[in-house]
Amino acid sequence: MARLSAVNPKELPLHSARGGPIFFQAHALQASSGPPLSAANQTLFDRAAREFSVTDTPRVPPNHLKWVQDAENNPDQFPDGVVCATPLFNISVMRRLLDNNHIELRDRLYQLFKHPDFHPRYGLSLAEERAHVMKMWKRVAALGFMQNSLSAGTVEGRQRYDAVIESCGMLSHSLDIKMSVHYGLFGATIKLMGDDEQAARWMPLLERCEMLGCFALTELGHGSNARAVETVAKYQPSSRTFIIYTPTDSAQKYWIGGAFQTARWTVCFAQLTVGSVCHGVHPFLVRIRNDDGSVAKGITLADCGHKCGLNGVDNGRIWFDNVSVPLGHMLRRYSQVSPDGVYTSKFSSPDERFGASLASLSGGRISVASGCLNQAKIGLTIAIRYALSRRAFGPRDGEEVRLLDYQSHQYRLIPALATTYSMQIVLNDLHQKWHRQELGKQLHVWSSGFKALMTWHSLATLQEAREACGGQGYKSENRIGPIKNGHDVAVTYEGDNHILLQAVTKTVLPEFIRGVRNGVFQGHFAYLNERGALQRADLSVMDARSLEYAEIVFRRREGAVFAKLAKQLEKMRQSGMSALEAFNNSAIVVEEAARAHTELIMLELLQRRLKSLDAEGQHDIVHALQMCATLYTLKCMDSSTVFVRSGALPATEADRVHNLLLSCCKEMRPYVLDFVKAFGIPAHLLAPIAFDYVGHNSRARL
Amino acid sequence: MARLSAVNPKELPLHSARGGPIFFQAHALQASSGPPLSAANQTLFDRAAREFSVTDTPRVPPNHLKWVQDAENNPDQFPDGVVCATPLFNISVMRRLLDNNHIELRDRLYQLFKHPDFHPRYGLSLAEERAHVMKMWKRVAALGFMQNSLSAGTVEGRQRYDAVIESCGMLSHSLDIKMSVHYGLFGATIKLMGDDEQAARWMPLLERCEMLGCFALTELGHGSNARAVETVAKYQPSSRTFIIYTPTDSAQKYWIGGAFQTARWTVCFAQLTVGSVCHGVHPFLVRIRNDDGSVAKGITLADCGHKCGLNGVDNGRIWFDNVSVPLGHMLRRYSQVSPDGVYTSKFSSPDERFGASLASLSGGRISVASGCLNQAKIGLTIAIRYALSRRAFGPRDGEEVRLLDYQSHQYRLIPALATTYSMQIVLNDLHQKWHRQELGKQLHVWSSGFKALMTWHSLATLQEAREACGGQGYKSENRIGPIKNGHDVAVTYEGDNHILLQAVTKTVLPEFIRGVRNGVFQGHFAYLNERGALQRADLSVMDARSLEYAEIVFRRREGAVFAKLAKQLEKMRQSGMSALEAFNNSAIVVEEAARAHTELIMLELLQRRLKSLDAEGQHDIVHALQMCATLYTLKCMDSSTVFVRSGALPATEADRVHNLLLSCCKEMRPYVLDFVKAFGIPAHLLAPIAFDYVGHNSRARL
């Protein structure tokens, strides 16, 4: 190895630039195998570094306007012309089905996003990126679309709210998060948890952005387990105020979107203490900054700092030093404290109370799932369009082959496309039920399960899309990479996906166990009353493309996994473990059960929706969606060994499913361009490589 | 839905800030449901935006020095104290085994990285980030470690080269790529493809950085299929020069690391044309900038722009306009042109010639695999240490449970840890053979397969580590997120992983087919001569922890997948498809075959290494590595349905493997801290959450 000898310690400065403590030890660092750099080549380095420093790198990628204009003029102008297949369905009908409502509103926002203020920007400092997002939000807010949205308490208002958030999310995840935090978490909590008077007082202000807010639930030491937050709100009858304080370092509010500089108000979740009794977590409206931007009395704010994405959102930390909050600022729809200090609540158990106080999170989870599916759509549209124009390898003297004509490329993108379609259909159903407020217990289970599976699907799809575009997928102007970095966080926020899956099983399992005990299954599990027939069904004679095939397999899996879990928990309990320990030590089966349940629910919703569309006479659409649904279920069965392990799918069928999946990709291949067009994403929200990547990179454009 | 009415178009400016064409249409954008923002709340927005603009966000995360110092003083000071198990092995012996060579050199570089110039920086503009990397490179270069490294042509030199690159990669991927491009791609090509005189002339200059270079192979239209590059080098006997030119837009050199501003020279790969004959792709040394930074005559350079990671590297584009290159600048070890225009080559076939000219890429692939495993180590160390201190949920009135004591958390991190260990052992073997230049055809196959599987493993591990740390994993100062963004590119550069897998099968399949035809298998496939016994082996009576169990399953799988592929190709050829079409239409089996082959090779190398360590008497180390190897093979078998589909693993065994995997995670759990310590990563290359995350975030540190 290289021999090392002592070097003059003066060569390496010993003081940090920030004047901090010296801890760098100038060890002998020079290899004896050669002299240090000469003066001449030091100059080479310095010159290169200086060139970088003085180069003004444009934040908006070069030729942005130009490629968009070309793409609009020739939306299907691939450099070598791609042959479109005979249409399978009407693109605009499909688009309306997917986007579901407020189509015109969405398109108008997309139109606004052509304005230079909304052009993409990369390589921004933290301060620049945050300022950019504020500027965009201001422009969107000025249109007034959010007014009377959540406050109205109508289906139209809630749909309009979601349409605005979703459209903004197509442009910038930081923008939609910033808005969701303010209107959706801060606002919706006031709407849901405040009484009518409180909602009437504050909702119009916040919908007009005269009151900018954030949502202070998470603490440094308490993320997923929100019930354990430590912040205290102690009622003082003498002054008729709550005194809010941060008792420990781990109790600081952390990750609070908008808290560092944007928000003037927060809904703070704290342990309500009246006299010597703690009544659990309750929400309080607290000022954190004055309108002039100065920090409010008793509040300390700090920056959460740079993240690997989503830097337009100024996540912050908050400490409360005996902040005095008027009695009227406790959100009191369900629980209240009388002036003389008597606590009353509409809920008898702390569990119910806690559940109700986090109700706004269910809507948040649906929004997150929805936003993520939209990002998958952007990634897929770009990657598929690129794969239709980009060629690589081929016969020695012939034209190279289009990427999408490789089986491997089809396998990477087409099942993801079909899954995105299937999930969107299912999510629309949930979304509609949410808008109409038709769901009870299911809301929690479905929104949790869907959020987990849809965000993971989206992230995996963006990863695949990025890889499928090679280096171009890594280039920021082509959007996939930055979108992926920004949406990565979706799998752990608004409920960590693993925790959400555990919550699904926790909620559903008791019904299964009741069925086992009673010998008769109710509700969702009723199909298990016919489990003999379910087991006897001979898959080998069935059409594996049919959703009936998938239904049998999904049901067998769910039944088997829940049975395994129930038996395992029982055994562990008998061996002396606490219920909690048994559950934690079964976490993998617990998550498999949640996935099995959620995928079966999704399949059932999909089947129902296809039937209703068929009844409406939309046969072409049904045909196209059926193709997607088949591919989606095949992909599920092919992706995990649980189907075989649980006995739901014999090994020979697993092989058949795998081969059929490949054929179905090939069958869908001629129609993929139409499928991505029906996502309705305008050119300027796509990327140069989705159109003429050679023209965009041509020398003439330098 | 919201009704939309016309708005004064003056409200939205119609001209782009850049003076470009007007294409923003000021459609009616105001919702009738409310007035636009009032003057008062416009001020709110403007103020927030202004606050962002004027805030100076620090590029080095706050308290960087402080937490590092604390961590060094108390490396095991988790906030609530973690009990370490009785050691299973000697940590420093294990570390030497993993890092393999130049341990002192590595540690000295790590020591250098404490200097303020190397402190982490986030939120930099493109120009700032590039300048920062140049500054770091200059400091490292000044130590002279690279002198006489590759040029020496010795095992020590090649090992020293890799040790420097790997150590720099622990700090910054941009730094190691920038250095790899210069020394490893530019330099190694001159060493390998230049004759002795050329190497003697240029290698010392470039190792002393008096000649900064890049590697111009990829073109806009030609990435994976490098043989199709269009750039032309036409020999002119009259002037004894090559005239190099870029014939089309798709022929521009693209993604060339360092080409935009750093490099002064490039090795340009171009189609050599002598008279009217094209002899295929050959390398030429070409000046692209003068030493003063001005662009050389006939050269046009452009920036590839911002990427979603790795922005310290200035990837650039190059056009050649009849650039005149002296005869002596064609790298002529294997092929040359005489002054009067006679082409001669040591290779008879263009295929061999092409293979030889890209030999430097094989070394590059090993380096990439190695760098990625190192990143997985960083991610795992941080996530595992955090999971040992962070707690969430628990008994109602007791302490919350440590994350790593959840089965789900173990399942997410521990198999990844075991896989990283197993892969490192195997890669060291390949690396050593490469340093000693002992490999022939295997070099291409192994380096391709290992690169693909190891980079994907690394990316998946970083993703899991990021998610396992929740929001903290997303925070830049905790490194995992930025590292993931930077290393994402590894799965598509230096050979796209899918293309590499296809190359593995393409190379190995003929040997399998010969065996089928001859009825006797040779070499690697010789085990198939006993395929009767292989099929009859009763797995259910075997110890599924043993590597013999895995060996049987892996062999069965490889045999079955190759047999399926051979049969399928044969059938397609008989139905009239060309060999190329048949291969493309079988791409999924082709990739499954490559994975089967590579995983079996890895298993065999692992078994051999364990045996040799055992023979050396390193029983504790062998025991620990055996634990890793078992978990790794179980994880392989549990992750893909191919084992069951191919008949390698009966469904009942798949279930047994799955359950055993969970038990093995639990068994390894007490030792994980030692396993990550043996990676030998100093505190300052880890993250605050790997130590006392509460202390680091405490209010006292504001």
Automatic annotation (TrEMBL), chains A, B:
<dbReference type="GO" id="GO:0033540">
    <property type="term" value="P:fatty acid beta-oxidation using acyl-CoA oxidase"/>
</dbReference>
<dbReference type="InterPro" id="IPR037069">
    <property type="entry name" value="AcylCoA_DH/ox_N_sf"/>
</dbReference>
<dbReference type="InterPro" id="IPR055060">
    <property type="entry name" value="ACOX_C_alpha1"/>
</dbReference>
<dbReference type="Pfam" id="PF02770">
    <property type="entry name" value="Acyl-CoA_dh_M"/>
</dbReference>
<dbReference type="InterPro" id="IPR002655">
    <property type="entry name" value="Acyl-CoA_oxidase_C"/>
</dbReference>
<feature type="domain" description="Acyl-CoA oxidase C-terminal">
    <location>
        <begin position="562"/>
        <end position="686"/>
    </location>
</feature>
<dbReference type="GO" id="GO:0005504">
    <property type="term" value="F:fatty acid binding"/>
</dbReference>
<dbReference type="Pfam" id="PF22924">
    <property type="entry name" value="ACOX_C_alpha1"/>
</dbReference>
<dbReference type="InterPro" id="IPR036250">
    <property type="entry name" value="AcylCo_DH-like_C"/>
</dbReference>
<protein>
    <recommendedName>
        <fullName>Acyl-coenzyme A oxidase</fullName>
    </recommendedName>
</protein>
<dbReference type="GO" id="GO:0071949">
    <property type="term" value="F:FAD binding"/>
</dbReference>
<dbReference type="GO" id="GO:0005777">
    <property type="term" value="C:peroxisome"/>
</dbReference>
<dbReference type="InterPro" id="IPR029320">
    <property type="entry name" value="Acyl-CoA_ox_N"/>
</dbReference>
<feature type="domain" description="Acyl-CoA oxidase C-alpha1">
    <location>
        <begin position="360"/>
        <end position="508"/>
    </location>
</feature>
<dbReference type="InterPro" id="IPR012258">
    <property type="entry name" value="Acyl-CoA_oxidase"/>
</dbReference>
<keyword id="KW-0560">Oxidoreductase</keyword>
<dbReference type="Pfam" id="PF01756">
    <property type="entry name" value="ACOX"/>
</dbReference>
<feature type="binding site">
    <location>
        <position position="257"/>
    </location>
    <ligand>
        <name>FAD</name>
    </ligand>
</feature>
<comment type="similarity">
    <text>Belongs to the acyl-CoA oxidase family.</text>
</comment>
<keyword id="KW-0443">Lipid metabolism</keyword>
<keyword id="KW-0576">Peroxisome</keyword>
<keyword id="KW-0285">Flavoprotein</keyword>
<feature type="domain" description="Acyl-CoA oxidase/dehydrogenase middle">
    <location>
        <begin position="214"/>
        <end position="323"/>
    </location>
</feature>
<dbReference type="Pfam" id="PF14749">
    <property type="entry name" value="Acyl-CoA_ox_N"/>
</dbReference>
<feature type="domain" description="Acyl-coenzyme A oxidase N-terminal">
    <location>
        <begin position="103"/>
        <end position="211"/>
    </location>
</feature>
<dbReference type="GO" id="GO:0055088">
    <property type="term" value="P:lipid homeostasis"/>
</dbReference>
<keyword id="KW-0276">Fatty acid metabolism</keyword>
<dbReference type="InterPro" id="IPR009100">
    <property type="entry name" value="AcylCoA_DH/oxidase_NM_dom_sf"/>
</dbReference>
<feature type="binding site">
    <location>
        <position position="218"/>
    </location>
    <ligand>
        <name>FAD</name>
    </ligand>
</feature>
<dbReference type="InterPro" id="IPR046373">
    <property type="entry name" value="Acyl-CoA_Oxase/DH_mid-dom_sf"/>
</dbReference>
<dbReference type="InterPro" id="IPR006091">
    <property type="entry name" value="Acyl-CoA_Oxase/DH_mid-dom"/>
</dbReference>
<keyword id="KW-0274">FAD</keyword>
<dbReference type="GO" id="GO:0003997">
    <property type="term" value="F:acyl-CoA oxidase activity"/>
</dbReference>
<feature type="active site" description="Proton acceptor">
    <location>
        <position position="494"/>
    </location>
</feature>
